[in-house]
Amino acid sequence: MSEKQTEEQLELDLELVDRVEANVVYEEDEPVLYEVVNHVAWVTLNRPQLHNAQNSQMLYALDDAFQAAVNDDAVKVVVLRSNGKHFSQGHDIGTPGRDFELPMERRLMWYDHTNKPGAEKAFAREQEVYLGFCKRWRLMPKPTIAQVHKGCIAGGLMLAWICDLIVASDDAFFQDPVLTMGFPGVEYFAHAHEMNVRRAKEFLFLGERMTAQRAYEVGMINRVVPREGLEAEVRAMAEKIAKQPRLGLALTKQACNHIEDLQGKTTGVDAVFGYHHFAHAQNSLVKGDYIAGHDLASMARENKKKES
Ligand code: ZN
Fold first, then answer.
1. 217 CA distance to ligand 1 centroid (A)?
2. How many angstroms separate the alpha carbon of residue 154 from the centre of ligand 1?
């Protein structure tokens, strides 16, 4: 066999496909900002022009920021907030900076997705950037607070939900509209732990916006405050928590997370991830596209319809 034939055989054996030529234009060099003030790490999503659509560039930068906060002994509490009009409009499914086709340096025990065929491609990618990262971030040994304003939509929920506390402004709203694309919710299926099952069904079936006040009433968030007082409220809360002993905080967080897991949280999230990817595969088979032909604009139109 010639060298070329051997190579071809190897490719066949490894079930690989050619990478798609990616034409990615990042509009921000720093999609996540990081600073530490008074023992609090302020982690800021920073794709304001695109309402903090989450591309891989942002999610890997977020992983870096969280790791930096965990590594820094001067940091006791981590706040996650956003620049721009909305907290986050969800995963990036259609900006010039959508980098789905770019290989990234992996952080978890999953292989690169970009040269994998069929349904394996999204499955391998989402094992890391969506499911894996969320599970990893939830386990940070320091308390985390999500500071949410305006839209917290789809993938935006995932970032708020992995935090220990959620403080929202009175203009915030929460929404998971991805049933429109055929999915049983976003990749991190914590819905039925963030609210009771009957409310989770309503939230998912209707895909409507949930106001901050309603989110407070169903127990999904800790506090609702006027928009102008949001940051001050979070700062006061974070700096007060920062005065508690480090290990005591870590143990308390682990204790609460452990009880959630006794209630089946992680097992449920893992199981529904399989359903989510069955829906991706079904979309590819029936609609010829793994997200049913939608992009940010078409989803925004569909979401507006749900409010009328
Ligand atoms: Zn997905």
1. 29
2. 11
Q: Do the domain assignments include residue 8?
A: no
Which structure tokens are listed for 89?
């409009």
Counted domains in the chain: 1
**Gap from CA of 99 to ligand 1 centroid (Å):** 14
The predicted structure's pLDDT at residue 162:
98
Ligand 1 centroid distance, CA of 282 (Å): 12
pLDDT means over runs of 10, the chain (308 residues)? 68 81 94 98 98 98 98 98 98 95 96 96 98 98 98 98 98 97 98 97 98 98 98 98 98 98 98 98 96 90 83
In this structure, the number of other CB atoms found within 10 A of the CB of residue 148 comes to 32
**Which CATH number fits the domain that encloses residue 59?**
3.90.226.10
* 272: in domain: yes
Residue 115 CB: number of other CB atoms within 10 A? Answer: 18
pLDDT for position 304: 80
User: How many A from CA of 300 to the centre of ligand 1?
Assistant: 17
Nearest to 72 by CA among 35, 102, 104: 35
Q: How far does the centroid of ligand 1 lie from the alpha carbon of residue 290, in Å?
A: 8
| Integer Cα distance of 172 and 186 in angstroms | 19
CA distances from 65 to 28, 99, 174, 237 (A): 16, 20, 24, 21
Of 79, 96, 95, the C-alpha closest to 87 is 79
Distance between Cα 228 and ligand 1 center (Å) = 35
pLDDT at position 6: 73
